[in-house]
Amino acid sequence: MTPKKALCIHSFSTMGRSSTAVIAPALAAKGIQPVMLPTVVLSTHYGGFGPVAKQDMTEFCKGALEHYRQIGATFDCVFSGFLSSKEQMDIIKDAYTLTEKGLKLCDPVMADHGKLYSSITDELVEGFKELCRHADLITPNPTEALILLGREYTQDVFTREEASEIARSLGKMYADVIITGTKFVDGSVACTGYDKEKDEVFFIELNYIPASYPGTGDLFGGCLAAFTLDGADLKTACEKTARFIEKVVAYTYESGDDTKYGVHIEPMLKYLTD
Predict the structure, then answer these.
(1) Domains annotated on the chain, with CATH
(2) Could you tell me whether strands 77-80 and 200-206 are parallel, antiparallel, or unpaired per DSSP bridges?
(3) In what order do the strands lie in the sheet with 77-80?
(4) Less packed terminus of the chain by CB within 10 Å, N or C?
(5) Which of 227-265 are b and which e, b meaning 16 or more Cβ less than 10 Å from the residue's Cβ?
(6) Are residues 13 and 21 in contact, defined by beta-carbon separation less than 8 angstroms?
(7) Statement: residue 87 has pLDDT above 80
(8) Is 273 helix (H, G, I), strand (E, B) or coil?
(9) 201 vs 38, 120, 274, CA distance in Å?
(10) Helix (H, G, I), strand (E, B) or coil at 261
(11) Reported confidence tier of residue 134, pLDDT bands at 50, 70, 90
């Protein structure tokens, strides 16, 4: 049987396990062909390595999509992440035309911990809102969830009732939702989801580990796409993704490795095939 194909439009860091470096192996481990379209090539990700070498790939992305169209390529999923310009957002909308009934997953990479990233302008915020309206599934963190709703976004800890209302509001406005890493007033952490078809809010509890690794959000999105393409419903896909991420983070934490190099995905891929 021909493997499903996922078009992943993300940054590519040549060192440090983030973006395409973790997305591609996760998809491949689940039997899905990753087609990687880099929006920018970086010597490392931005998390702790100092000034990076970088090359914008906007024109390449345009050319690649035109080539895909000429050869009649179609995709079972279009998965987008870090974008640096309105022009790149237009590329994502163009890519959506290459998947008729496939999964359109948008990770609106804009902010974290109550602050916008330095590269994010008001134009890009509005662009992400538009992209999310075209998507089937969005995966904001809590800060990004509030930004998408046009609300004050410095809040970092929530009640279950607040998280439920935010997820439902996002779902009504945009698409199916998984809000990653919601911290609650009782000290617990969970993914907060909203399934539009079922009109259901759900929580997937997480075993919190006191360390932050670049690329875990990218890995989360890649695994979520993989389990969804494998036929799981939204809640089940989120549950399976969360359990895998926990294993990878725990293994990496126990290694004592410098966090800026990201999670040790290489020896853990076998758990995606269980």
Answers:
(1) 5-273 (3.40.1190.20)
(2) unpaired
(3) 54-56, 33-42, 5-13, 77-80, 103-106, 137-138, 176-183, 189-195, 200-206
(4) N
(5) bbbeebebbebbbbbbebbeebbeebbeeeeeebbbbbb
(6) yes
(7) yes
(8) helix
(9) 33, 29, 27
(10) helix
(11) very high
